[in-house]
Amino acid sequence: VDNLRKSFITPLEGEDIDILRQRLDDIMDSIEKAINRMVLYQIPKPFPKEIREYIKIIKEAIGEINLGVRKIRNVRKYQESLHHCCQRLNELEDLGDVVNRTALKNLMNIPQTNPEKNLEIIKLKEIYETFENAIDYCEDVGNIFESVLIKNR
After folding, report:
1. Cα atoms in the 13 Å half-sphere on the side-chain side of 43
2. Domain 13-151: which CATH class?
3. 14-40 and 115-151 are packed helices; what angle lies between their axes, rounded to 10 degrees?
4. Is this model's pTM higher than 0.70 or not?
């Protein structure tokens, strides 16, 4: 990070670069944790609809982040595009919240007829929460972009 600060002229302050780096790492860690849990807990294919929905949201959010990272180098030129990116990341996080509430509601409505179902509920709840964390971190990146936009007006 120090070398980056010294060798690269950027509209991002050193603190912004560090926070952005941390959030990008948090996104990757959350995705890795969720996938590792899916393997460890032997979640069968086809994956539950909720997992597919989380993955779709995360994939789109990462696309927005990729676009934002490329455009933030010239923040003044791409202000409108970056602002749209921030809005879309916020919308995706809201959508992730809806998926999370629905997923948890569906889990709680599973008939608890045997202990195996209880274990399945616990496993899926943990995976859902980890995917939700990844989506929250994606929104955090959008907030960092928004902060950079404000600083560079």
Report:
1. 22
2. mainly alpha
3. 160
4. yes
